[in-house]
């Protein structure tokens, strides 16, 4: 709220969701600080402020279909699942994917489909999506992801080098794309075919 998040649904969901359940016991006491934390495999649970900004930029609809690339801890996945109809989430590390799925099932989420592997090319079988969120830094906007958006759909993706990225909201308008810059951020790299490679 202090940093300018206005969407009440996003604020309320983050208020209700226990972030400490998404981190290792060693980090529980830092779970409500506004910074990322390690989750294993060299990855991090994103900073709460960035989670809020990205969620707001997706402009989620209660009946919407959302694709998330980079499940990680599953914290962002849970927020998407609360605010949208159906969530499809992909994580490249099977250890993280398994832990996130167990955690989210344990919390009672039933509207999430999980996949392990390279998600940089999206999940075409379930396209089109109203929203696509990439929670890792990409070198460019993968066209293959924009192609999986419904008309007027939103792709939110950090794009830049590995030190700093610009968070972009890309809106599909027919064969055109409307690109809005949201802010600057620092995410772990998106690997894979349409990311930084393996
Ligand atoms: N939003 C999550 C994770 C953020 S870290 C959270 O807050 O917990 C980004 C995640 O993206 C990491 O778990 C990383 O393994 C994953 N990732 C990176 N490249 C990927 C790719 N090509 N396909 C699927 N997942 C990827």
Structure commentary:
- The protein is α/β, with parallel strands linked by helices and 198 residues long.
- It is built from five helices and nine strands; from the N terminus they run H-E-E-H-E-H-E-H-E-E-H-E-E-E.
- The strands form two sheets. A seven-stranded mixed β-sheet has the order 5-4-3-6-7-8-9. Strands 1-2 form a two-stranded antiparallel ribbon.
- Helix 3 links the parallel strand 3 and strand 4.
- The chain is globular, with a radius of gyration of 15 Å.
- The chain starts with 7 loop residues before the first helix and ends in a 13-residue tail after the last strand.
- The site of S-adenosyl-L-homocysteine (SAH) has 26 residues, from strand 2, helix 3 and strand 4.
Describe the structure in brief.
The protein has 5 helices and 9 strands.
Specify the overall morphology: globular
**Helical amount among residues, as a percent range?**
10-25%
Multimer state: single chain
Class computed from helices, strands and strand pairing = alpha/beta
Q: What is the radius of gyration? A: 15 Å
Strand content: 25-35%
Helix and strand element order: HEEHEHEHEEHEEE
Mean pLDDT score: 97
Please summarize the sheet with the most strands: 7 strands, mixed
| E-strand count | 9
Low-confidence stretches: none
**Count of alpha/pi helices:** 5
| Sequence of strands across the biggest β-sheet | 5-4-3-6-7-8-9
Cofactors and ligands present?
A: S-adenosyl-L-homocysteine
User: What is the straight-line distance between the termini?
Assistant: 38 Å
């Amino acid at each position: 709220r202090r940093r300018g998040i206005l969407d009440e649904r996003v604020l309320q969901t983050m208020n209700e969701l226990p972030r400490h359940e998404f981190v290792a016991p060693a980090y529980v006491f830092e779970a409500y600080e506004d910074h990322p934390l390690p989750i294993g495999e060299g990855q991090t649970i994103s900073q709460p402020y960035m989670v809020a900004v990205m969620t707001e930029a997706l402009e989620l609809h209660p009946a919407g279909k959302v694709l998330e690339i980079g499940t990680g801890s599953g914290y962002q996945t849970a927020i998407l699942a609360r605010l949208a109809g159906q969530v499809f989430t992909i994580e490249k590390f099977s250890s993280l994917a398994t832990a996130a799925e167990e955690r989210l099932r344990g919390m009672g989420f039933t509207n999430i489909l999980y996949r392990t592997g390279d998600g940089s090319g999206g999940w075409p079988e379930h396209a089109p999506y109203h929203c696509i969120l990439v929670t890792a830094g990409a070198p460019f906007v993968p066209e293959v992801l924009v192609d999986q958006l419904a008309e007027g759909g939103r792709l939110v993706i950090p794009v830049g080098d590995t030190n700093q990225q610009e968070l972009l909201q890309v809106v599909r308008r027919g064969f055109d794309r409307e690109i809005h810059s949201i802010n600057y951020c620092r995410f772990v790299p998106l690997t894979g075919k349409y990311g930084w490679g393996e």
